[in-house]
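Feature request, filed as a ticket because there's no other form

It would be nice if the structure record came with a short human-readable summary line next to the tokens. Right now we just get the raw output. Example of a typical job, pasted below so the devs can see what we mean:
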Amino acid sequence: MPDLYPPLATWYAHHARDLPWRRPGFSAWGTLLSEVMLQQTQASRVAAEIDGWLAAWPTPAALAAAPTAEVLRRWGNLGYPRRAIRLQQTAQVIVEEHGGEVPGDVDALLALPGIGDYTARAVAVFHFGLRHPVVDTNVRRVMARHLHGLANQRHARRQDLVDAESLLPDDAREAGLVSAALMELGALVCTSRSPDCDACPLATSCAWLAAGKPDNAPPRARQARFEGSDRQARGRILETLRQSDVVLLEDLKVVWAPDEQRERAIEGLVADGLAVRRAGSLSLP
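Raw output as currently delivered:
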């Protein structure tokens, strides 16, 4: 396996985006916040929001004590709002079990509410400087092409961590840079639909490029239709709640007309802790 550190380090030094969580002195709490937000949201949108979040709630203790309704309002359209609830629960556990300080150990991070394998490893590597393989969608695609000659690998596998480990230098700092550079490469160059292979620092050792860039990706899972879905109904109702302290259930008929689907959406929001139902009305928690 060629040493990927030299070409990736050179490329990353010239092409890495200036994102808040990459700046010197960015806090562990800020890193955790950004990684949770980045799970389903473009980096540019998170970059525009993260400073406002940290100004409002600069520590886990601040978010833990915040009114949940305000957390949901600020979350806005950053992805599934249940993640905002879990994020506040995470802050509460950090306060109660870790003295208000974000832990750096992967296992301790995994024990936090809503923190999965990627987020735990990303915080441990990118803030605390530990050596672990870190795999997101972009890294998975780069590895599929570079190592296996596949146009893409859309499904997460435990083998991904083994593959990523095989690409890391022994030095923890260099390994962290390789992980960050692989993510950036997947986001900017080795993209899903229009990879710019001429600009890729790994082109000379890429198995997919050497094979002639075959269209051999595993089939894409069919996505459920959003228009008219329960998910859309939930989103519309929750957006209405963000704009008002209390909404009459009768008024929600204008927001979403089909009675059964509206009721199903309301019940789901209440069950997920995103809304509180009282006699004749609905509100944020």
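Something like this underneath would help us a lot:
The mean pLDDT is 91.
The radius of gyration is 21 Å.
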